[in-house]
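From the shared-data thread, chain only:
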Amino acid sequence: MVDEKIYWMGWQYLLPGGAKRIWNLVERFGSPQAAWMASGEALVTRGGFEPRGAAHLVRRRSELDLQEELARLQEQNITYITFEDSDYPQLLRVIFDPPPGLFVRGTLPPPGGQTVAVVGSRRPTPYGVTVAEKLGGELARAGVTVVSGMARGIDSAAHRGALAAGGRTVAVLGCGVDVVYPRENKRLMEDIIEAGAVISEFPPGSPPEAWHFPVRNRIISGLSRATVVVEAAEKSGALITADLALDQGRDVMAVPGPVTSPQSRGPNQLIKQGARLVESAADVLEELGITCLFPGKHLQSPAMPGLTAGEETVYGMLSGDPVPVDIIIENTGLAAQQVLSALMFLEVKGLVRQFPGRLYARREKPSRF
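Structure, as tokens:
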């Protein structure tokens, strides 16, 4: 419903970057509209706000004309999609705290498409830039959408590599989609919008504040089947993204670097901890069970797509009879998030079918991946 969409959007204006709080409000009041219409007293008693915070919200809410904001988005060619919309990215749906909605400039990847995040240092070495551009290009030529954060350094290099290969790329921003940050990426941002999408959970006009970036990193990893770290210091936003990817049940991979370089410490440590070592896109594609590296050139096709350990566990307990997701979680002994992620990827690979009521079963004959 258009009205519901407006209220979802309104809450993102009032609580930018506050996905958990917004979901909590909607759960307590029953709908975003009901929460929006709540009195200051109800926001305290039911919503869990402090009186001062509730009064501030009520005041800001009274100053916000949602229809006017929606019209402004349309004027700027910004699309707003909610969690309830069919074009909301499926991979993002299953993370712990998905954004209620996304502000989008450009076109999101088609459902079921392959997505891989390539992230790294804002202060890369020439080696890192070269590798990121090469990796972005190889993935794009394989039909994979390259996801990154349009930051200086590795992120920008990965986007450029994908664009140079004529592929699709998505930039997730820690500011509004109408804000160019860093400023020198104005042309890059325009090219990304033309060949893919620039997205954010922060409303238009939001500045690039420091706390926004760890928040947006969960979207970078959440959009992607795997996250590849190219270069990163020991304490780096790219390593935060890698940790988030692991929490979301996604693959983490890393490009090794010289032991003498501080920028190699992050990825080298990830490899020590078990991350897949990446020398080229072929390593990424193999890990994800993707058998086509370049259009028209196929690698040897296995009997079925490559499966992660979690996917094998879930697939192994399924049969042709539909099983409730709660039973799958109980029988596998895996975390709920791991099971949901595995089921989604098994669906993408054509090995599992979902039925109404969140029931899952093996396909009789796995479809070709």
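The chain is about 45% helix and 15% strand.
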